[in-house]
Each structure stands twice: as C-alpha cells, then as structure tokens.
Amino acid sequence: MIEKSLKQLSGMLAAKEVSAVELATEYLGRIKAQAGLNAFIATDEAKTLAQAQAADKARAAGNAGLLAGIPVAHKDIFCQQGWAATCGSKMLENFVAPYDAHVIEQCDKAGLVTLGRTNMDEFAMGSSNENSAFGAVLNPWDRQAVPGGSSGGSAAAVAARLAPIATGTDTGGSIRQPASFCGVTGIKPTYGIVSRFGMIAYASSLDQGGPFGKSAEDCALLLNVMAGFDERDATSLQHDKEDYARDLEQPLAGLRIGLPREYFADGLAADVARAVEAAIAEYRKLGATVVDISLPNTKLAIPAYYVIAPAEASSNLSRFDGVRYGHRAADYDGLTEMYEKSRAEGFGWEVKRRILTGTYVLSHGYYDAYYLQAQKIRRIIADDFQKAFADCDLIMGPVAPGTAWNLGEKNADPVAMYLEDIYTLGVNLAGLPGMSVPAGFDASGRPIGLQIIGNYFAEAKMLNAAHQFQRATDWHSKAPAL
User: Fold this and answer.
1) Which has the closest alpha carbon to 214: 147, 150, 166?
2) Residues 351-392: tens digit of each pLDDT
3) CA–CA dist 248, 425 (Å, integer)
C-alpha cells in the first residue's frame, strides 16, 4: 500500500478496499517505527484519525474529492490551528497556531488527512536539517548522511514511506535539494502561485511553498490543491486556476532542453555529472533536443542571495522579542535585557548569524553598498534566464554539486555549506519554478537529483517532462531499506 501512487490510493478508497482510517493508521505506525529518523516534530493520533473519519464519511456520502482521505505531512513552518508551529526553533517551541495557513486550508478542503508536523532547519535557515532545535533529521538512505534542508523532514518522510506526500517551502533550494538528497520528487512553483499566508516568514521575496511526492504525478496532484489566489497575501498572484496534471501524458518530441555550461564546470562531482548526462541522454531518446546555453552570472547568485535573504530575515525575525509570543527568558532585569536574553536563548547559531548579517547590510552606510547592489544583481540573474529561455523550453542540470554529505561534515564551515546551493539560488532570485527528479545514485548509494527549471507559469510543462522521464526510468520508484 505504501508504494501506491495517489491515484491508486484514491481508487482504493473509492472502491472501499481500504478506509482513510486504515490508511492513516498504517502511516502513523510507520512513523512510530521509524522515529529514529527524526523526520517528525509532532504527531497527534486523535487529530489525524478524526480527520480520517471525516474523510470516510465524505466518501460514503458521495461528496468527496480525488484526494479525500489521503495522508499528508506538513512542514512545521505552516500555521495549523490547534497544532504547535515551532518552525524548528526553541523560540516558538510552545506556540500553538490560532489559525490555519492558506496551504493548510486548501489541504483541509480537499479532505487530506494530516499525519503530523515535519522537522526542519530553524526558521528554514539551512541546507542540511542539522539546525533544528529538535535535532537533526537523518537521511533514510544512509543514516550517517544529512537529508538536505531546510525541508529535510518532509523529504525524508516521503522517501522513507512515512507519508505519501508532504508540503515544504523553498527559499533558496529548500525543496529541490532535500528532494535530490532523499531520492524523491519536489517542486518549487513560480513565486506567488502558492500563498504565503500563515507560512512563518524567512525571506518574504524568496519563500515559496510546494509539494513533495514519490513522483511528478503525485506532486502535480498536490500542487493542484496547494495553489490558488489568496487576498490575504499581498504577493499572491491572481493567476487562473490550473490543472498541473493536464499535460503529463504529452510526448516530448520537439522539446528543447537548455544545458547551462556554468552548471557543468569545476566543482561538480563526477557521479552527479554522469547521472545528469545519462538523464539527458534519456530525454534525447524521448524526442527532446539539447541546446547549449549560458547563465553567465550563476556564481553571483550566492553573494546576492546571502545579502538579500539575511536582510529580509533580520526584518521578519524582529517580531520574536519575548513580548507578544514565543520564548521569554525566565530571568532578566528590565525590558532591554529581556529582549537580549530571550533572543539569545530562543535562536540557534545559524539564525543568529543570518540576523547579524542582515542587520549589517541594512545598516546606515552599508545599504547602498550591499543590499542595493544585491538587488541589481538579482535583476541581472533574472534577465539571464529570460535570454536563455529564448532558445529553450526547459533548463536542466544538477540540483547540487554533490550528493548528501555526512552529518557534521560542514558545520564548522558555513560558507562551504552555502556553496552547495549554487545551482538552486538563481531560480528563487528570479522567482522561477524549478523541481528535482530522482536520476540515480552515487558510488556510495546516495541519491542524485536532476533539476528541471521552467519559465514563469511553466509548472505543467516541467511536470510533463518529469513524468515522461519517470515513465522511462525507475529511479523514483526505489525506496531505502529500513
């Protein structure tokens, strides 16, 4: 049952071969059995089974949608009424959300059943899921390895078959990179397609919610639920509702794939290069043609991102001061000391590092030199992509320079960890959609992902390309031995 697609599970529910309660119980049991992965921060069996019972009743009454009764895991960054929304931080350890994020509302309307809240890097700041106040998530393919971040809990949960689908967020690659490291499919949509209302903010101009699944088809069906205009989010796009699964079966004859030469330069691991080249060869067999393109400012994405994102984080996280909600120090003398101690105790080292960086680049005398220049580079990077899309339909390449590294391996050198995001950051800076598709394994058996990047609103085209690749290969169907 755990290897079934969403359509297959939906069919089983419709035929009463299994009930939503039985399905939820199966996954809750797996979550308990694999608690050592630390993929979940919280579960609540009573809440989950109540939702499952409601889904069964809706199906019995004949007014349930396609995904009613399907279990889903939610990244602990989305506010969900009655659940703790910690964002992986001690600062919000005891914060219980009084309302639902738009993504949660959409999932509830569709009848999806919440399995629990997945672990994540604190306030979505990290590439390894080692920054969580609740401990590191382990990669189910190799428990000595990181699962990627910041949505590592969601990626690990889907890879380990603890959930058929999961939600995540992507600020600089935080869906695509853990999807690659855990051997699952994940998509970051065009900025504004998925509402950020109720999503605890890291960098507001970059954050975007998206789905994880075993396959492109499963991601398309969950994205159908998650996407939609929300007037409560000023950055939500008034874009016509789409069926992202509509083109899955279209042939790829005539598809033009752009290969950026900058993505295949020094620093790319040989195993990753071979897997990506093999995937491109498969696309040629499927009728696609390959075009050489250039994204000349790829290397500038790292410094631009690590100015803009910390600057926005500095502003967004200023609200966590121990006054209104969140952690408050137990012992302090006066208001200023309460602020200082509460923030010092509540935030982890990586969050503090980015807040300090962001405050610095926004300070008087440095705003023009750093923040303004980074925004100019951001526009140049977006223009590079548009020039490339004049010659191709989709861009493909690696998700990261290498595969998952060992736990603790890069903790002493944050810059080395930041460099792992070189192929993903530009997509967020430009607001483009991108996804990761399983494409092989390295010599040690750790997964490798193929990155597919589309132009604005090209999610259906990307998912079509991913689905056809998955019909021709079986990388996405492989699961770790637990």
Assistant:
1) 166
2) 999 999 999 999 988 999 999 999 999 999 999 999 999 999
3) 27
Contact (Cβ atoms closer than 8 angstroms) between residue 65 and residue 110: yes
Q: Are the CB atoms for 92 and 113 separated by under 8 Å?
A: no
pLDDT of residue 424: 98
Report which of 324, 327, 355 is spatially closest to residue 342, judged by C-alpha positions: 327
Q: How far is CA 345 from the centre of its chain?
A: 27
Q: Are 200 and 452 in contact, with CB atoms under 8 Å apart? A: no
Compute the distance between CA of residue 464 and CA of residue 393 in angstroms, rounded to an integer. 12
What span, in angstroms and rounded, lies between the C-alpha atoms of 408 and 158?
23
471: its two tokens: 């019909």
- pLDDT tens track for 258-271: 999 999 998 999 99
Locate 245 and state its tokens.
């699964």
128 in Cβ contact with 121 (< 8 Å): yes
The CA-to-CA distance between both ends of the chain, in Å, stands at 16
Question: How far does CA 289 lie from the centroid of its chain?
Answer: 29
Which amino acid appears at position 175 of this protein?
Answer: I
The pLDDT of residue 401 is above 90? yes
Q: What percent of the chain has pLDDT over 70?
A: 100
- pLDDT score, position 415: 85
Burial label for 399, CB within 10 Å (0-12, 13-18, 19+), is buried
Report yes or no: 424 and 433 within 8 Å, Cβ to Cβ: no
Report phi then psi at 394, rounded to 5. Answer: -135, 155
Cβ 176 vs Cβ 451: under 8 Å: yes
Which residues are known catalytic residues? 75, 150, 174
Q: What is the chain's alpha carbon radius of gyration, rounded to the nearest angstrom?
A: 21
CB-based contact 427:455 (threshold 8 Å): no
